[in-house]
Amino acid sequence: MNRQTQSARSVICIANSQIIKHIKKMVAELFPDSSIEFVTIEEFRPSAWQKLNEIRAKKYEAIVLACYDYELQRGLEKWQGYFLLTGARKKLIIDLKGNNLAVTWLKFVVCGIPKLVVEALATPFMISSISQQVDALVKNKSSSGTSAILQRPQKICYLRTDHLFGPKSGGSVTHIAGVANGFSRLGIDLFFISTDKLELVDESVTPIYIIKPRSLLKNATEVPEIVYNKLLTEKASRIIESDKPDMIYQRYSTFNYAGVILARKFRLPFVLEYNGSEVWAAKNWGSPFKYQDIAEKIELLNLRSADLIVVVSQPIKEDLLKIGLPEHRILVNPNGVDIDRLHPDIDGNPVRKKYSLEHKTIIGFIGTFGRWHGAEILAQAIEPVIDKSPNAHFLFVGDGATMPLVRSIIKETGVENHVTFTGMVPQDLGPEYLAACDILASPHVPMLTEQGSLVRLQNFSSIWLWVRLL
To answer: Which sign does the torsion angle of CA 301, 130, 273, 370 carry?
Structure first.
């Protein structure tokens, strides 16, 4: 078989797990006569360089990076450089807006390499400037909004600053919408300032001002989040001056301190929603941040500047008390359930039928496969469960960082026939997938104890929580 015949049916497409379902039709139309292999970025990135020889050996007709928005894509020049080494005949970067960029050596040499060099030279100066600004904010407590009196607000500015883009699923989506809808039901006006559009939020009721990151520094790790503070505070200031809120509410995100600046500038109460230490998570569930010291300073700056810190659990409150934050500034607001969206009357039979699971006992997991979700723990429980209950079938809903490990465990234990992966599903369809299950599993991974050792699960076959749907 010659190269042309083989490559005509060989295309590899790499995409974020959140959008991979949305781009399959687009890629199929670009390569109608090809067999297309779809790989998530989360699975591909950790071993990209090890896979390079394998990719070259397969002699793909095309390699494609599919992203949500070409202008927001991180590491674009790095991806181009990598693609040029793969030996694929066509090298494309596409997005959901229909943009289509052909990667060539000429473009990379003329534009890509100079941009990488400029970013490498500019990054240290930018980081140094930001670090000095954060230090100044920490020292300048006299202008802090912490003396503001918290009263019932009439209008709230909600800052959503996560650099997560595109169709989104997961707990953060429902939590953000739940908070916004809760304020609305209390008769409090609210508007969002966000990096992207928001799922489950009715813009006719709750306006959303989108301020997209526009920094030229997109290839350096963590730098886009850090430099975004300047753009956000400048543009958000104009919005706040126009809409005149009487409170700022921010869902904390790593490296962002815009809420602190805006609250001090306009002398508004600053409420911080804090769902745990991202610095701790990076150290213990991933890799420490490259700019770890700045991440720690910004996290503490937010916590110590807030008039009120809203947390979802007592353990998080206790962690904050240990670092010296006063108890009267911490409010525990436990996660709840929207009974209008999640109730026993939802019909899960269409989902069962879609995956041919009508006569199975379905054990379901839904999540973004974060390291704290423990999906790999559930994967280890499958073999002992089906040994005792052969009719059991496991439904994994979602995708994310630990999915490669989950798939590996399932393959190694030989239980593939008892598992279905749905990939990401739209947030509004989540209740139907939950309703399709007889049992729901929540195998969350324990955090470190005070002694610094992990609490270990004693029995994989008895997952932390089994809830039978009514």
So the answer is: negative
